[in-house]
Specification:
Layout: E1 8-11, E2 22-24, E3 38-39, H1 40-46, H2 48-62, H3 72-75, H4 89-92, H5 100-113, H6 116-119, E4 123-126, H7 129-139, H8 145-173, E5 192-197, E6 227-231, H9 238-255, E7 259-261, H10 268-294, H11 305-317, H12 319-336, E8 343-347, H13 352-363, E9 368-372, E10 405-408, H14 411-419, E11 427-429, H15 437-441, E12 451-455, H16 460-476, E13 483-486, H17 495-498, H18 510-515, E14 517-523, H19 528-534, E15 539-542, E16 560-562, H20 565-573, H21 594-600
Helix pairs in contact: 1-5, 2-5, 8-12, 10-11, 10-12, 11-12, 12-13, 16-20
Length: 611
């Protein structure tokens, strides 16, 4: 390779050229005829452990970037004692619309493939100006004047305005909230607290029936006087907040004063303190901007921070930054007025509210903290993984908030955590509360002549690939297939996406739809595949080359993975020959809850792992 014949990164919808070697950005390579073409999605999967480790190491090391006096983590210390670094998007490692994690993995792959001298001569071909500019900034360090002007306007004008609007909206919509949590008269009798999202509450529950949550199932009913703290998950909305307050008030009237909405009205002093911290963070943001861009780990030549810079700007200067400060201030106040509990159970997803809760509960000595992985744990879902230096169980000096113990609901999830460096003493296996309904369905034999069930994803851009491949596959079939479609509750499939298949959208719940399905088709990112695999229903996951293989079964033979419509069509054409068996280790299912009972009674054995 030389400057006259540089390697090309191909990120276009059109097929790549056949006369030049290319790195295929968003393709598995089936349409390329050139033997020297390399599919980056395939390369990332083939070197998954090394690339994941390198990315986690980068995210861990970048917080130590220093201005000569303090590191960026230290400079972002808040009055509550927690650094805003831990609440920022790069640290949380969420995957969503910006696709930062998949993009970073592909850029790491390019650096591994291309030798150092040739790296600066790469050509980029992309249908997206944004993606093309980002790749150039990371690999070639080329910053256009237009980009610089745009980022200056966003950082100095747009983000502060959004931050101001966000705190104003919070103040308006929470003006009727109590300033403190009302403590109950028998507060000292509370042994266990459960934190969940109130959005999951079922309003059809009968009056005076013990409260159950889809996240916790019936387990809290086997303990005496549990206290529920309900996190309001969305941006504060006046109408939704008022309805939530009314629903919680009704629950307390019917079942006793056990439910608290974990949100509060701020006082003038709180707002003043938050504004001072926000202004201080802006000075830190300006001081460290160029230093973060210049950061390179010892074994890397690429400016990987550019992938996370937009998220970082929002986390410190935008509406997310101010919401995190509001969250930390209100959580600290709410926790300080909470009763003391023997154990606080919370949903473990590496969300900012969790880190604030852990830090404040430990600061005020409010009880032992146990994080519960209520859904599937997946190899590429980096929220659950971190560099070993940040893992409190391995490094007690780490300042990252960590629970005292972790509960998982499957052997697969347990093995993934152990494999990534979590010590065995830190994890216990318990029953899968959200998936206990599968225990009864296991006795229902799979339908050989049932319908094809398409399960949508919770991310819109993932649905676009899933539906496109599915529709093309159906058009290639020689015989008609009966199809039913279920949208994800938080991301409805639209008529524009589905076209003629929109009439196949079913209002039935997932449990009912699985009873009649002979094969399930879903995205690799969807956790719904775990439900069908656990029941022994043949399951096909459609891989998205723009993303990572987020399937919990990426290294197992429990599912059929397809990359394109042709492969999917071949499987559906002969779906009666697809094989599958109920996955006994997918979830821990026992309606008697022996493992949960051991965790709950007595509380002094919560740290004992079950073998």
């Amino acid at each position: 390779m030389n400057e006259k014949n540089p390697l090309t990164v191909w990120a276009r919808i059109d097929p790549p050229p056949t006369n030049l070697p290319v790195l295929l950005w968003s393709s598995f390579g089936f349409e390329s005829q050139h033997p020297r073409s390399i599919s980056l999605p395939n390369y990332v999967e083939q070197h998954a452990y090394e690339i994941r480790s390198q990315l986690l190491s980068f995210i861990s090391e970048v917080k130590f970037v220093s201005d000569g006096v303090r590191t960026v983590e230290e400079a972002l210390q808040t009055p509550e004692g927690l650094s805003s670094w831990w609440l920022s998007f790069p640290s949380l490692k969420h995957w969503g619309k910006r696709q930062s994690i998949p993009i970073a993995c592909k850029l790491i792959a390019i650096e591994r493939i291309v030798d150092k001298d040739a790296l600066r001569h790469i050509q980029i071909e992309s249908d997206s100006d944004r993606l093309q500019g980002l790749i150039k900034r990371v690999l070639l360090e080329r910053y256009t004047v237009r980009f610089r002007i745009r980022r200056v306007l966003i950082r100095n004008v747009v983000l502060p305005i959004r931050a101001l609007g966000s705190i104003a909206r919070y103040l308006i919509h929470t003006r009727n909230q109590p300033v403190r949590i009302p403590t109950t008269t028998n507060a000292t009798g509370h042994r266990f607290a459960f934190f969940d999202y109130f959005a999951a509450h079922d309003p059809m529950q009968s009056n005076h029936a013990p409260y159950t949550s889809p996240y916790w199932g019936e387990v809290p009913c086997i303990v005496d006087s549990p206290h529920w703290f309900h996190v309001y998950p969305k941006n504060v909305d006046r109408r939704g907040l008022r309805q939530t307050q009314q629903a919680i008030s009704k629950l307390n009237q019917e079942n006793g004063p056990e439910h608290t909405l974990f949100i509060k009205k701020m006082q003038a002093g709180d707002v003043s303190a938050i504004c001072r911290t926000y202004i201080a963070q802006q000075r830190v943001h300006r001081r460290f901007r160029s230093r973060l861009r210049a950061f390179r780990p010892a074994d890397s030549q690429i400016a990987l921070w550019n992938v996370f810079e937009e998220e970082w700007d929002d986390s410190i200067s935008g509406s997310t930054g101010i919401r995190n400060l509001v969250l930390l201030t209100t959580t600290n106040a709410l926790v300080s007025s909470m009763p003391q509990f023997s154990t606080i159970f919370y949903l473990w997803e590496n969300q900012s509210w969790e880190l604030a809760l852990i830090h404040c509960a430990r600061r005020h000595g409010r009880g032992r903290l146990v994080g519960v992985a209520h859904s599937t744990i997946r190899f590429w879902d980096l929220r659950y993984f971190s560099d070993k230096s940040e893992n409190f169980f391995n490094n007690p000096k780490s300042s990252r908030p960590f629970p005292d113990h972790i509960l998982v609901n499957s052997e697969i999830g347990q093995e993934l955590l152990l494999e990534s460096g979590f010590p065995k003493r830190s994890i216990s296996l318990v029953e899968a509360l959200r998936y206990m309904y599968l225990h009864d369905l296991r006795n229902v034999p799979p339908k050989q002549n049932g319908y094809v069930l398409l399960l949508g994803d919770h991310l819109e851009h993932v649905n676009e690939t899933l539906v496109s491949v599915f529709r093309k596959a159906l058009q290639q079939l020689t015989r008609h297939q009966h199809v039913k479609i279920r949208s994800h509750p938080i991301c409805q499939l639209t008529k524009n996406q589905l076209g003629e298949l929109f009439s196949c959208v079913s209002p039935e719940g997932l449990s009912e739809l699985l009873r009649g399905a002979s094969v399930v088709v879903t995205s690799a990112a969807s956790s719904s595949a775990a439900d069908s695999v656990a029941l022994g229903i043949p399951t096909i996951v459609v891989l998205d080359p723009q993303n990572l293989n987020y399937s919990p079964f990426r290294e197992t033979k429990n599912v059929y993975a397809v990359e394109n419509a042709e492969q999917l069509s071949d499987l559906l054409e002969h779906k009666e020959h697809l094989k599958s068996q109920a996955g006994e280790t997918i979830f821990c299912l026992d309606p008697n809850y022996p493992r949960w009972r051991k965790e709950l009674t007595p509380p002094d054995i919560v740290s004992t792992s079950i073998n």
